[in-house]
């Protein structure tokens, strides 16, 4: 009888121990990586870390993987047909890459019970299957950061609360914030994006940037409990210090060109330079307009649609260079459309990049001088 009691008692202990091990099998956390120098790393990165204490594995699930050797890589990327995919890699390998690039990494440990842990791991492993791993990348609506939050939103949508509120921000303002030190890149991206990125956004919509996903998770709750229970710096590197603010290069360049343009027009000895510059301005605006219009109707990136920059960058402006005479009606129309683009900017429908303002003023000056020439 005593032996039976001992066997029963030991069995209870073993069962309890097994339950404890099962409960603590996984540790789920979110990794947020700082911005890098390369264009693809400009906005940072997010990934999910799963540590398995039973099988002694430490895996990072990364939704930001792409094949740079994909045929027509750049065409597919611009058109919105480039396939990104989820990849699982060893944590040490993942962290070594960011250490090599001197990019800080922050870890947020999540408060999820054993059942939720198993659901998360099953979901991630299912995503690794060939038929589920790929997705069409969209830098505003579907990327490595939005996919991370999507894991939890799809599994626990009824119990997950990110305290979604309206922000005093737009997609464009957040992009500008992240591109503060990259003047030329910021100008190019701003020109390519249409009015959709100028609409006010909410907390959830801001998660397209890893930094904002990180901030949002700090106030997110699951089952009415704080989702993030611990936070630590896995890698810490100091931000490169800037002693003084650098000049905005494209803005400074275009202001100088505007001054030269006006000076050459009023100076008879340099008028020929004005004629050359005005032709370049018109041809360049025409080329930009063709690009904007093409991306509007050809690209799958919805943020490039409805791009009203085409109002000041008319694709037909090249006609003023080829046949400059008797174009008064066209010039009046072009002036009206430029005025409309300024109105749309002022009321917030589509913001014009600050850097492009001197170029548009140069176009205005050229069009007005053409009206004077036609009137003579």
CATH overall fold name of the largest domain: endopeptidase fold (from Nostoc punctiforme)
- Radius of gyration over C-alpha positions, nearest whole angstrom: 28 Å
Q: Please state the average pLDDT score.
A: 90
**Ranges with pLDDT <50 over ≥5 residues?**
1-22
The class by helix and strand makeup works out as alpha+beta
Notes on the protein architecture:
The chain has 376 residues and is an alpha+beta fold. It has two domains: 174 residues, endopeptidase fold (from Nostoc punctiforme) (Alpha-Beta Complex), CATH 3.90.1720; 127 residues, no CATH class. The chain has 13 helices and twelve strands. It has a seven-stranded antiparallel sheet. Strand 10 and strand 11 form a beta hairpin. Helix 10 packs across helix 13. The chain is elongated, with a radius of gyration of 28 Å. The chain starts with a helix and ends with a helix. The N terminus is likely disordered.
């Amino acid at each position: 009888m005593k032996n039976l009691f001992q066997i029963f008692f030991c069995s209870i202990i073993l069962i309890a121990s097994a339950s404890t091990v099962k409960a603590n099998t996984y540790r789920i956390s979110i990794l947020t990586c700082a911005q890098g120098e390369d264009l693809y790393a400009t906005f940072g990165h997010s990934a999910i870390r799963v540590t398995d204490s039973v099988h002694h594995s430490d895996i990072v699930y990364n939704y930001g993987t792409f094949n740079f050797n994909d045929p027509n890589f750049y065409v597919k990327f611009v058109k919105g047909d480039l396939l990104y995919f989820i990849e699982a890699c060893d944590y040490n390998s993942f962290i070594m890459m960011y250490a090599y690039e001197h990019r800080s990494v922050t870890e947020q440990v999540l408060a999820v019970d054993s059942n939720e842990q198993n659901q998360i791991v099953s979901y991630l492993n299912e995503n690794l299957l060939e038929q589920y791993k790929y997705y069409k990348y969209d830098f505003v609506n579907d990327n490595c950061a939005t996919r991370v939050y999507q894991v939890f939103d799809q599994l626990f949508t009824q119990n997950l609360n990110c305290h979604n509120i309206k922000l005093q921000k737009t997609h464009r303002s957040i992009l500008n914030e992240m591109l503060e030190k990259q003047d030329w890149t910021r100008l190019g991206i701003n020109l390519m994006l249409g009015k959709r990125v100028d609409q006010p956004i909410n907390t959830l919509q801001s998660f397209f940037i890893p930094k904002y996903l990180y901030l949002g998770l700090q106030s997110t709750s699951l089952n009415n409990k704080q989702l993030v229970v611990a936070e630590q710096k896995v890698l810490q590197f100091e931000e490169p210090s800037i002693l003084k603010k650098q000049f905005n290069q494209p803005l400074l360049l275009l202001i100088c060109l505007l001054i030269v343009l006006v000076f050459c027009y009023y100076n008879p000895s340099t008028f020929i330079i004005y004629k050359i510059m005005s032709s370049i301005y018109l041809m360049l605006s025409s080329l930009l307009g063709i690009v904007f219009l093409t991306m509007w109707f050809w690209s799958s990136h919805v943020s490039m649609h409805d791009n009203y920059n085409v109002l000041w960058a008319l694709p037909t402006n090249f006609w003023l260079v080829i046949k400059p005479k008797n174009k008064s009606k066209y010039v009046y129309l072009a002036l009206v459309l430029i005025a409309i683009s300024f109105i749309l900017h002022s009321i917030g429908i589509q913001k014009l990049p600050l850097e492009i303002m001197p170029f548009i003023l140069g176009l205005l000056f050229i069009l007005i001088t053409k009206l004077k020439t036609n009137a003579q």
